[in-house]
Amino acid sequence: MDMNSTWLKEDRPRRWWVAGLVFIILVTAVSLRFHLIDTTGIWGDQSFTLNTALRWVKGGEIPLAANKSSVGIMNPPMIEYLYAAALRLWADVLSVAWLTLAAGLAALALAAWAAYRVFGWRAGLWTLALFAFNPWSVLYSQQIWNQTMLPVFAALTLAMLLLYFAVRPSGIYLVLAFVGAACMTQVHPGSAMQLGTMGVIMLLFWRRLRPWPLAAGILLFVLLYVPFWMYEKSVGWQDVTAMLAMAGEPSTFGPAAVLVSLDLLHAKGLLPTAVLTDPHDAFMTILFALSLVITLLWGGRQFWRRRQDEQAQRYSTAVIILFLWLLVPVLFYLRTAVYLQVYYLMGQWPAPFILMGLAVALTQQWLERPWRRPWGRWASLGLAGLLIVLLAVQVILNLQIQNARLSENRIQIRHVRQAITRIDELTAVNPDCPLVLVSEGHQIEISRLALLQEFTTVPTLLLTDGELALPLPAPCALYLDARPGSRASNWLAETAVPLPHVDLTVQNETWRFYQLSSETRAQVVEKMQDGRQPDAWTNGAALVQWQRGDVQPGDPLPLTLLWQVSGQPPHKTYHTGAYLLTPDNQVVAQADGPGFDSIQWRQGDYFLTWFQISVPPDLPPGTYRLALAQYTWPTLERIDLAAGDNTLFLEDMTLLEP
Fold first, then answer.
1. φ, ψ for residue 614 (rounded to 5)?
2. Claim to verify: residue 553 and residue 450 sit in the same structural domain
């Protein structure tokens, strides 16, 4: 069965037909990826990585690490360098979305090119088509997220391995495979098991290895990790230690990895209510299962013929590499019964699509053998027609998924860009007033809108969680209330002046801008302070005033605290503890939290914090004490009061019989 590309010279009409099909696929793929690209979500992860990249572009220090991963360890910095490259060309969030789109298209090209070079034009064409319209492939070509850059580097690594070991052992292929592996494992360390796959491939086909490309590839891999090693050294290798500890944890085997691997071919996880989702997913499962059987049997036959046929050796080598690339991640994650997110298995790409493309090509060639004419050719055309229907269904599913984002209750690129424009307009008129962003997440690492800190021209931007705190900066303040209904939002509605005609509509919410003038701020502070002398801690925080609600068993005890930053604070993270104590200082109930992020404290500013102390329902009548303490986070070292001791006792309260 000859799958060489001699047809390019011998069959000019077919060449133009194939070129036309490739053009149609690519135009449709690009259109799908541009469609509503500014409706993809923005949350804490994106805000942190985008801010870090733009800060570097503006002249800040080069990032040595990215954001914190879902398992608690720091991600390597490669994603920051990629984002910075786009932001240096255009300092707009959309430029990074376009970078992701370009990377997704590059993944398609690499997969199709590798399939074509190894298995012929049919396999390349079907690989391209099946990969181009896969719903996860389209989503990961639009979304700004570390993991969305994984497909292009997985495709680069796998394509180069196929070309080096199965086609021609050109040194550049092996070097690029290591470069792709370094980038792949940095944008998502969960793909690191593919380094083991590379090792197995090199052991199996060691005769093709050449020392200089191997050495150069390893050297480049190490060099690309140097910034992260520098970071790890500075923090005492704590993330490496944590990863080794996780690797040593007991395994709980389960089939989750197999199911997650199949999910990458399905659409249900993206939009369960989409029309045609169930038949599409069932068809993809069947197609993938049949493809595994067909390519395994055909690859086995090529393996037995490898000594007599150089082409058979090439095919069998490629099939072995594809199956290893597909199976090793599944085998690795079989050790956990937890149902993983799909991006943990994204490192398999593009192997499933190449295998399916190869299986379709093999089936068509088998059907088109001369002795099966004419029914065989009609059957081959019927198979092509069935797959075209599948691709049309995938286009419909993708459009449904994208259109559904229009009504998602999530901040999107378009909302962020609109907010940036409005903030820049308002702060240009009020340059002396810091802007306070009331949102979810109290610090830059977790705030869903932290990217406004770097992407706006505001000289001073403060972030706060609307349920935890509200800063009252000097001399005046502008506020963007992006968390309607929160405590901070209610306080602003009662106290500050709303700015007319500048509201932002974000999905089903209205974000309002407020202004707190210097006069109003002074009146608020004076009224709340009411002549009380502040209680100061040695870290620069001073309690100016406090208000509490009634103490009732089983009900939360609300506590409002007004603080002043009376001294220059150390650059540390502090939390506050509010305690309900017995007369002998035993803790009955408590509420702890960051309040207003201490990294953002500025001398002379005031801020409000809110706590809810959960009073036990069986709390007996008696006398109780209300107290406060401050401590470093996460080391939990108590901060001393300026007057001595480290606990501020606010009030003794009596709980009467009901």
1. -80, 105
2. no
* Phi and psi torsions of 249, nearest 5°: -70, 150
Residue 5 has pLDDT above 60, yes or no: no
pLDDT tens for residues 167-205?
999 999 999 999 999 999 999 998 999 999 999 999 999
Domain boundary among 498, 523, 548: 523
Q: Are residues 368 and 419 in the same domain?
A: no
In a domain, 1, yes or no: no
Most confident of 18-27, 248-257, 336-345: 18-27
Cα three-residue angle 612-616-621, rounded to 5 degrees: 115
- Reported as a single tens digit per residue, the pLDDT across 574-633 is 999 999 999 989 999 999 999 999 999 999 999 999 999 999 998 888 999 999 999 999
In a domain, 383, yes or no: yes
Contact 580, 550 (CB under 8 A): no
DSSP for residue 90: -
Ranked by mean pLDDT, which of 102-116, 309-323, 442-456 comes out on top? 102-116
Same domain, 403 and 417: no
Name the percent of the chain lying above pLDDT 90.
72
506 and 537 housed in the same domain: no
Q: Which helix (H) or strand (E) holds 46?
A: helix 44-57
Nearest CA-CA partner of 104 in 175, 34, 23, 194 = 34
Distance CA 161, CA 178 (A): 9
Parent domain of 230: 7-32+45-407
Among 476, 595, 465, which residue's Cα sits nearest to residue 537? 595
pLDDT at 139 over 50: yes
Q: Give the separation between CA 337 and CA 260, rounded to whole angstroms.
A: 11
C-alpha distances in Å from residue 63, one per residue of 47, 75, 384, 447: 15, 11, 49, 19
476 alpha carbon, distance to own chain's centre: 36
Q: What is the pTM of this model?
A: 0.89
CA atoms of 126 and 112, how far apart (whole Å): 8
Residue 439 and residue 388 share a domain: no
Residues 66 and 207 in one domain: yes
Query: How far is Cα 658 from Cα 655, in angstroms, rounded to an integer?
Result: 9
- The H-or-E segment that residue 546 falls in is strand 541-548
Residue 38 domain-assigned (yes or no): no
Are 516 and 605 part of one and the same domain? no
- 71 domain-assigned: yes
Residues β-bridged to residue 497 = 515
Asked if 544 and 560 count as a contact pair (C-beta separation under 8 A), the reply is no
Compute CA distances 525 → 518, 536, 545, 568, whole Å: 11, 17, 9, 20
3-state secondary structure of 154: helix
Provide the CATH number for the domain around residue 577.
2.70.50.60
What's the number of domains the chain is made of?
3
Residues 400 and 257 occupy one common structural domain: yes
Q: Which of 523, 556, 589 is the last residue of a domain?
A: 523
Note the pLDDT of residue 338.
66
Q: Within 10 A of 571 (CB to CB), how many other CB atoms are there?
A: 8
Q: Label residue 1 by pLDDT band (50, 70, 90).
A: very low
Query: Where would I find the beta strands (DSSP E) of 270-333?
Result: none
